[in-house]
Design a protein that fits this description.
alpha+beta; six-stranded mixed sheet; Pathogenesis-related Protein p14a; 256 residues; single chain; CAP_dom; CAP_sf; Immunoglobulin-like; elongated
Length: 256
């Protein structure tokens, strides 16, 4: 019998928004099978396939490939090994968040997302069987698939670990470095106070902007900007400067 459990986590570092989908620490029953030697060959093949198949999946959805990142690889490796060694499972199994683990490994993050899973086997273990369970399992799970297809993610790191050759733990981190954050600047050039709405994923923030006032923020996620009283919005993905006009619209500013 095979057993697969997956979890998802998202951590974002932004000027206004901090968001997360995370479970607490979950203690999984200890493995009953013992004596299986760790297969470096299988683990290497599965780790490589997780990244390669993630990029194939992204390509099939018209998205850019994510690049392997060494700090993310190291963070994923240490966490997978921790879960395999302790039989503790969950995004905070070692008392740290995915973002904290990535940062400790040297990753200067803007966003960190994480997929984890484990599989317990009673029969022969092959790289192909683990790849099918981990990668396809994440693809078939909406929140895990969302991590794999996030269009603002640019880097990844994946790792697999086992201590007994029976139960395998998989970790895939997705990141966007702090260097890829962008600046959004908006000035109210109208004659009245306006409430400006900023939306990213499921987060919404509103800022009251008096005439001739300017708000500047650093963002990590693509952000929709709109007047609270209007349904029209601008989506910002890179450095941008806007102004509120007397006509009640948000337009690109001619001055930086």
């Amino acid at each position: 019998m095979n057993h697969l459990i997956s979890h998802i986590s998202l951590y974002s570092l932004m000027s206004i928004i901090t968001m997360g989908i995370a479970s607490g620490q979950d203690a999984r029953p200890a493995s009953t099978a013992t004596g299986s030697a760790k297969s470096t060959e299988i683990i290497t093949a599965v780790q490589r396939a997780i990244v390669d198949q993630t990029n194939e999946f992204r390509k099939s959805n018209q998205l850019e490939a994510v690049q392997r990142n060494e700090p993310l690889m190291q963070a994923a490796k240490k966490f997978a090994e921790f879960m395999a060694r302790t039989d503790k499972y969950g995004h905070r199994a070692n008392g740290m968040t995915p973002a904290q683990r990535a940062e400790k490994a040297g990753y200067d993050y803007c966003i960190v997302r994480e997929n984890i899973a484990y599989r317990t086997n009673t029969g022969d273990v092959t790289a192909a069987s683990l790849i099918e369970v981990f990668v396809q399992g994440w693809i078939d799970s909406p929140p895990h698939r969302e991590n794999m297809l996030a269009d603002y993610i640019t880097q990844t790191g994946a790792a697999v670990a086992t201590t007994d050759g029976v139960t395998y733990y998989a970790v895939q981190l997705f990141g966007r470095p702090q260097s890829a954050a962008f600046q959004l600047k908006l000035t109210n050039d109208s004659q009245k106070t306006e409430t400006i709405r900023f939306e990213a994923n499921d987060q919404r923030d509103e800022v009251e902007l008096q005439p001739q006032m300017t708000v500047t923020m650093t963002r990590c996620l693509p952000t929709k900007v709109s007047l609270a009283r209007s349904d029209e919005s601008k989506t910002v993905r890179s450095d941008a400067t806007f102004r509120v006009t007397n006509e009640g619209t948000i337009e690109p500013s001619e001055t930086p």
